[in-house]
Write the structure tokens for this entry.
Amino acid sequence: MSGEAIGLVGIIALFVLLMLRVPVAFAMFLVGFLGIWALNGWNAAMGLLSSETFTLASSPELVVVPLFILMGNVASATGMSRQLFNAAYAIVGHVRGGLASATVIGCGGFAALSGSSVASALTMGRVSLSEMERFKYDERLATGVVAAGGTLGILIPPSTGFVIFAILTEQSIGRLFLAGVLPGLLLLSAFVLAVTFLCWLRPGYGPPGPRTSTTEKLRALGGALPILAVIVVTIGGIYGGVFSPVEAAGVGAGFVIFYGTVTRQLSLSAFWQAARNSVVTTATVMLILIAAHMINPFLALSHIPSYVGEALVALDMPVLGTLLLILLMYLVLGCFLEGFAMLVLTLPIFFPVVLSLGIDPIWFGVLVVLTLEMGLVSPPVGINVFIVKSVAPKVSLANIFRGVFPFWIAMLVTLMILVAFPQVSLFLPNTMFN
Amino acid sequence: MLKTLRKWADRLIGLSANIGALGLMVEVVVILVDVTGRFFGKPLFGSQDMITMAMVILVFGAMALCDRNGGHIAVDLLEPYFPRWLNRIIDIGAALLGALIFVFVAWAIWESAKLSVMLNLSTNLLRLPKAWFQWALCGFAILTALGMLLRALELTVSRRDLRRETDTAL
């Protein structure tokens, strides 16, 4: 059997295993190991297994993953998410749809503490959904805004999605983090605009909350100062060249632990639980990454990525057309595959094509992470929607998906803006690193 | 019998996860000391060695708990359409496959550790023997494999899927 045929059999086997609900990491391990054995022999497969496992598990660049996850988990345990929501509510809560806008802003703030969309949706959902129910917000708007707002977690740095993209494509984590700042703020603004438009169209969707006094505003904003400090120290530290991303993650995690301890909002048991949850999440991510490093060499050896590249080139489309086609594939795949798994499965195929077309890899990274976000709220497997469902069990899944739809459109518009204006993504990394 | 095995397995899995969490704490402390020290012109010697080796412990220390709590990502799109017996067979098969993978990981790393001992491989600055951490990785991988085997056994014999029992999560 030729290398190409083995590659094709491998991809079909991988697809079948995934559809049979075999964990993504196990399926990639099995197909990658057997594929390399078939193409290069037993010793090559065993050698790769031992070297990739230990090298990735001890990779200094990947240390940011557990540290930023820990920072988010501890921030959540210390009630920082509520303080964020309160501050945003004090400013915009009195306008129509203000609670929903406050939720989006809170999600954006929490996203700067945590690299996980699921954590953002879960945390902000717990804080804001009961408030929106109290003020008789439409359940579709309330749940939709939490599910969509949560996705900001993987666009606004620190982002686990960017770290994985950086490791798989050998790009700078710092550059990617900075590239995510302006698109993240743009998307946040698009979400707020969507809320405003919906509430203008149907005033009953989001009744205004009571107006807060200046003292209450100042108190609420003061409560959010520690969060602002963490963001300035971590993201500002990377931007200013004071810290590497790993150091920024460590310092950020240390800061939230210190804050939680000093303010007595973090008990020892809550802290330890946050630490254990962080290492468990890290284990999930790392196992998939190790498995991806088993299957990627197999795909490369079978020449499948180069055939896909040749096929795309043979279409004779302009660069922008090819880019849009790739993004379209990501949008479709995002409906069926978990975002992170989709990233590790597709990047080895698409990324060489992107490079050969002269597309900026950092810009491409931002676009891919945004499509990944859209997958998090797309039916039928929008993970963030399921997370919101777990916090609001009385609301039907269909209604949550309906509620998410306007925000999905806002994401699509943002994606188009980012495609049309690469500078939005590239301005900060280029000014900082060039 | 199964209950006793589960009790002991859970204790070991909990201990392993605690060691992983301890590894994470080491990361945080080492980075803080290093950054603070650098501010005063005295960065922590060998911080990179400690950070990378602690990473091995934290990643694989938590692997058994990750599986025990059903933390591995899977595409469950077709699950509602499969008959119950097929879903059970898939669960058992996936657990056995996972166990096999982790046995292979342990075996491959064990062989690599033998080379590390022979060549006296160590970290760059602190000269921490690489084999220590490879053996630790092997131990955690074997524990994960045993946890998966026990889960497969429970699914086969008593049809118990503890990943769905959130109240018993460690």
